[in-house]
Amino acid sequence: MSEDKSEDKRSNWSRRDLLKGIAGVPIVGSVWWAGASKGVNNTQARDSILKTLNINASPPPPSGPMAGDPIRIGIIGFGIRGPQLCRALGFGQKSWLESMAEAAKKNPKDTRLSSFLEQEHLNVHITAVCDLFDVRAQDAIDSFSTDVVKVQRFRTHQELVESDVVDAVIIATPDHWHAPIAIAALQAGKHVYVEKPMTHNIKETYALKDVVEASNVVFQVGHQHRQTQSFLTAQDVVKKNILGHVSLIQANTNRNDDNGAWQYPIHEKANPNTVDWKQFIGNAPMIPFNAEHFFRWRKWWAYGSGLSGDLMSHDYDRVNCILKMGIPSSVVASGGIYTHKDGRNVPDVMQVNMEFPDFSTGSSQVAGKEKGMTMVYSATLGNQYGRTTAFMGHDATMEVGNSLTIYADGKSTKFKEKIVSEEMDPNVPIYQYDPASGSVDGVTSATAKYFADKGLLWTYRDGKRVDSTHLHVREWLSCIRNGGTPSCNIKEGFEEAMTSHMGGLSYKLGRRIDWNQAKQEIVQVEGYDLDEALLEDKEKIV
Q1: CATH number for the domain including 243?
Q2: How far is 287 from 456, CA to CA, in rounded Å?
Q3: Owning domain of residue 230
Q4: Cβ–Cβ under 8 Å, residues 330 and 513
Q5: 347 with 341: CB under 8 angstroms?
Q6: pTM score of the predicted model
Q7: Are 311 and 217 a contacting pair, CB within 8 Å?
Q8: Do residues 33 and 411 lie in contact, with contact meaning Cβ atoms separated by under 8 Å?
Q9: CB contact at 8 A, 394 and 244
Q10: pLDDT tens-digit profile of 225-261?
């Protein structure tokens, strides 16, 4: 027993300290191996492993030039995500610029303002805004209007999309307005960038898909991690079958603060005279004016999509952009409201099992032995312990966030000889890509760190940090100017939306939800209208 404990300590020490060493090496594909401590020539061993792996650490693909007439953008929804998307376009609120200047003054290592100011100019004008809260709409007008372009306010999204002052719209509203606004904009011939989840229910997912496919405009869903270098590198890892057959993927959300639990501040000036409450409600059940519902709408199924649509959608698409596995054949979800008894009816703890019985990433073993995969998403809003996204294959395990790390598996077929010769140690990474080595990221909150660790805030190009959302919006604008298809188009959005809805339905109905691949539809559950069940504004149906 004592010998086993000693061995465990040795392995843990080795892994921890070597990771610390790797973190300070600002090169692509830092490689470590157990044999180095036994006198193996470092350069020879490193080159041998790199040759075996042959991984291409891929930068975000360049999009086309931004030349030509400025593209005129209308912003629909200017709450929290709206201003962030405007910064990705190159437009910072006056209040944000002031706060960032003050932060940089207090801490010279805080680079958020300098990174924003150094961001590429995208040759766009913000010409219109639609927000249902007067204070927010005025903030956009005051912040972005210039002597050349005055931002116009529109009281409804219909008036904005039908106006001749916008070419394209960015939709950052509550979830229940995503599809209706996107459809109206597409029908009016406007290009669309819409935040996730793409839709709020099943019926409108098909409706939006039909309109996009029938249009000639450019459509992009806001999954900005598709621009992150570590995820593009992971695609190459899978393509070269370095992991072997991946049978299990674990993805996670851990948050433990009010902001992470959607307890957003309620503005003191919000009241029935400053908020268009009837328009906010839209197709949701009408209730009297409620400022908490308006500002903290993610806490209710009537307007939001809970953990499945709001956060799992990110993790599902992060995996789907690497594996391209599509919609799961079945989904089983469980959980509850265990950490925030505050009137919400979406869960704050959730686990979702997604099954892909016919999917394979490839194999290093005999044909037919390996087939099928499970993706597990688990979340809690009551604990912030950091957990990685892990792809577990027969030959290796890959952890992916803003960095990428690969460990050979002790029972690997592909790497058996190198493990036996101790050129590879399963306790030590055989490959790690960390573009952020030695950089200062300016993370100021636990929630920001959560997004940063998932590759959702920034990536790196030519050794320089770049906002991932900026690159994602740029890709959309490039396709408008130069042609092409965005990386998160309607196919990817459809897969994300349907998978999210399957997770929500399974949770609310307390049963497995199946997908009919041939018919491209969710299998009906006897006795239920699935959209009614999904949108019913209560925690669970049964």
Answers
A1: 3.30.360.10
A2: 35
A3: 1-57+224-263+291-462+490-542
A4: yes
A5: no
A6: 0.88
A7: no
A8: no
A9: yes
A10: 898 888 888 999 999 999 999 999 999 999 999 999 9
